Known about the structure:
The protein is mainly α and 414 residues long. The chain folds into four domains: 1-48, no CATH class; 50-153, no CATH class; 155-283, no CATH class; 305-412, no CATH class. The protein is built from 25 helices and two strands. Strands 1-2 form a two-stranded antiparallel sheet. A hairpin with a 6-residue loop joins strand 1 (3-4) and strand 2 (11-12). The longest helix is centred in the C-terminal third of the chain and has 20 residues, at 393-412.
Amino acid sequence: MTRSCLVCGTPTKKTCTGCSNAAYCSRTCQAEDWISHIVDCDTPGRELTTADHLAASVFKQDSTFMKGETARDYGYYRVLGGPEESKILDAIWMEIILTIGVKPLTLHKWRVEGRLHAELVATYGRTSKRISDVNFAWLREHPEVFDPKGKSISIEENAHEVRLSAWRFIGGSESDSLADMKRKSKDWPAYKHSCFHFYGMVVADGGPSIGNSVPWVRFGFCVFNTRKGIPLRQLYRDLIEKCTFEEFCEAYKKSCLLELIDSKGLKAQRMQMPQHFETVLSQSPDYVATIWFLRAYITAQNEALPDPVILMPYGYANCRDKAELTRLTRFYAKVLKEWVIPPLELHDAAVRDQIYEYLSQLSVFESTTAERRFLKRVLKTQNWWLFGGSSSTATQWIQLSAFVDLMLLHHMTN
């Protein structure tokens, strides 16, 4: 199958020499993209380091790679000045990796040998590339951020700082502690808590990561083909600057965020969002089509399976073991990411119990006899019966939730 080279766009049937996930027209193009692709490649050829994930985060502009050990190793747990200083650290890594061109293996070597800060300062000092004097000054003044023996801020402490930043943003007192915030918000309804958590994500990074699938879907990030959704992050930053928290919560509860966006003079920005953004927000928060949750799960490549309500319409209940679950997930990854099948067309096929029939007639569908046999079995669904004979997303969610609750109750009592 002909695809476009990820680097230069040339039509090609060639792929990464280590896997078939990425299309490259030449070894030159593959080498140019390797720093970004190595973390996704099935056979990277060496053990990956946290520096590889740091570089991938920078190249892809995707914060989902910047978590856990990577965030710890490269200073994010030792930044004590909140989101603003985290942004400076982001900028430093962008200059080090993108502008100056320091390789991940070099960063890894500096870190494990305990000389990361000294080498970064020296690199900034001798480069002829154009860099920020502000970033260089901050780097020199904060050796403790890059020192593994320095004081670290835990994941929990960082989360608390983000929540307090969001609390102050919506009008909470600067002197309020975390306990004060919890006391004052304890009687909020669930939808208001959801909005507050979303505000924290927007204040910290413009929005949720794809691994946080519920806000990722409910606030419309799921319509993007990337793991970041950068244009929407800017739209939400602009929106929360123009509306009150109460206005946002009411609009979210009533599925009227589109109207709120337009009323604040942001319609032109909204119109630049991908197809189906309006559809998702008009169904949010309660009745967004399940396909968007499946797509988020596939794109995020999470190991943990999502809610059974999300997987059931797409044949996962027919899988006999973990190997078949993985096999079906890889197939859907090909369908949604490589074939770029419109998500709502796949959802409509699921509603009609015609997933295999719909996909097998596509020109891109190529499969062995064994694969066809597997797909025919697992993609044989009973969604029309399960959905109560309705294509309404509201009815689908109600029926699915009731059925899953019934199944769980059955297993608990037997």
